[in-house]
Design a protein that fits this description.
Largest sheet: 7 strands, mixed
CATH superfamily: Spore Coat Polysaccharide Biosynthesis Protein SpsA, Chain A
CATH class: Alpha Beta
Oligomer: single chain
Distance between the termini: 44 Å
Helix content: 40-55%
Radius of gyration: 17 Å
Strand order of the largest sheet: 3-2-1-4-6-5-7
Shape: globular
Structural class: alpha/beta
Strand content: 15-25%
Length: about 220
């Protein structure tokens, strides 16, 4: 059984995209993040045997928000309290305890993330213990495990450009054979937002599908540069 978890936050102004908000304001950053999340959730509705929205906070308003967003295509998995590493570890542990064979987690900061990379991640887990998709900021946009739960999230300095390197070192320390996907980008800063605008423009110019309709509408509402 393949399990996909998407880690998401309720788009509350002042609580999401704080680095981007420093340049565009809290309300604008929250609106952009809401659009990113909706596009990502819509893109992966039909992928994997089980799909979970791993959401924070875990209160009833957040559950209602993500229940509406899931439209019956995802289960809700409220993230527990604690650092990101502990929450990721719990997600993988719960998934394997429920019978999963291959488990992949992605974030919601990469609105243009192609579905083929997630499909490739599951495929690579057929012959590898772990899979990781490096992000251009030094972290990762995807991480997956196959077969069993492994402690991959210890000794990581989260939100630092060393996250990818430290995670690979942790994989090596537990003798896990990793597979590597192509790099992709998150949107966390104003420069990242300009990269997103340019990428969308390039896809339109070359006739490629963007698959980010909510993001495009939100971007068109105002120029943030």
């Amino acid at each position: 059984m393949n399990v996909l978890g998407i880690f998401v936050k309720q788009p509350i102004a002042g609580r999401v995209k704080t680095r981007l908000a420093a340049d565009v304001g809290n309300d604008r950053a929250a609106a952009l993040y809401a659009a990113f999340t909706e596009d990502v959730v819509n893109r992966f509705r039909g992928l994997a045997n089980r799909r979970l929205l791993c959401h924070t906070p875990s209160d009833e308003p957040a559950c209602d928000h993500f229940r509406d967003l899931s439209a019956g295509n995802y289960e809700l998995w409220p993230q527990p309290e604690g650092p990101l590493g502990e929450r990721l570890d719990r997600f993988f542990s719960d998934a394997f305890d429920a019978g999963a064979k291959r488990v992949v987690a992605i974030g919601s900061d990469s609105p243009t993330l192609p579905s083929f990379l997630v499909t490739e991640a599951f495929d690579r887990l057929a012959e590898n213990d772990c899979v990781i998709g490096p992000a251009t900021d030094g972290g990762y946009y995807l991480i997956g495990q196959g077969g069993r739960h492994r402690p991959l999230f210890d000794h990581i300095n989260w939100s630092q450009p060393t996250v990818l390197r430290q995670t690979i070192a942790q994989m090596e320390s537990v003798s896990a054979r990793p597979a590597l996907l192509m790099p992709w980008y998150d949107v966390d800063t104003l420069d990242d937002l300009e990269l997103l605008r340019g990428h969308i423009a390039a896809m339109h110019a070359t006739g490629e599908s963007t698959s980010v309709p909510k993001t495009e509408v939100c971007l068109a509402e105002r120029n943030d540069s």
